[in-house]
Each structure stands twice: as structure tokens, then as C-alpha cells.
Specification:
Distance between the termini: 49 Å
Order of helices and strands: HHEEH
Number of strands: 2
Strand content: 5-15%
Shape: elongated
Helix content: 55-70%
Largest sheet: 2 strands, antiparallel
Structural class: mainly alpha
Strand order of the largest sheet: 1-2
């Protein structure tokens, strides 16, 4: 089976959204407004309050994950600096 380039891009877009943690419900809500694999451009009038709330909540969850990852990175880096023999890269 041969897929068109557009179909491949659509699948990559959806996969990226899933990988970022969006639920299929969120993706279904914004899918009609995806313009290309790297950008989402829903017209303001098309974003319902429910969709905006879903996306806002997701942004907050992503930020919390980023903050947690950054704290863990810093702690691990500090640990590695403390236990790494001098001169080791």
C-alpha cells in the first residue's frame, strides 16, 4: 500500500500530538484546523470554550512536566559533579 505525502504528514502530525500527551479527544477537536505538521492555526471563532479549556489544561500539565524534568536534571547533574572523578568529562 502506497500512501500519499499528505497522508504521511497527517499521520506524523497526529503521532506528534499524541507523543506530546494530547488525548485523542483533544486531537479530534483541533484536527480540522491543522495546517501542516509543525503548526496549528485554528481560527479564533472556531475554538470553543471547552476546547480552549482542554488545551489550556494541557499546556499547564506540559509546563509541570518540564519543571519536574528540569529539577531532576539539575539534581542529577549536581550528583554527577559531586561523584565524578576530577578530569572526567
Amino acid at each position: 500500500m502506497v500512501c500519499s505525502e499528505a497522508a504521511v504528514q497527517d499521520v506524523q502530525q497526529i503521532r506528534g500530538l499524541l507523543d506530546s500527551g494530547l488525548t485523542t479527544e483533544m486531537i479530534r477537536a483541533i484536527l480540522p484546523y491543522l495546517s501542516d505538521p509543525d503548526q496549528i492555526h485554528p481560527p479564533r471563532a472556531c475554538v470553543t470554550p471547552e476546547t480552549a479549556a482542554l488545551l489550556s489544561g494541557h499546556v499547564e500539565r506540559i509546563q509541570a512536566r518540564i519543571d519536574c524534568l528540569a529539577r531532576n536534571r539539575d539534581r542529577l547533574a549536581a550528583y554527577m559533579a559531586a561523584v565524578r572523578p576530577r578530569g572526567a568529562g
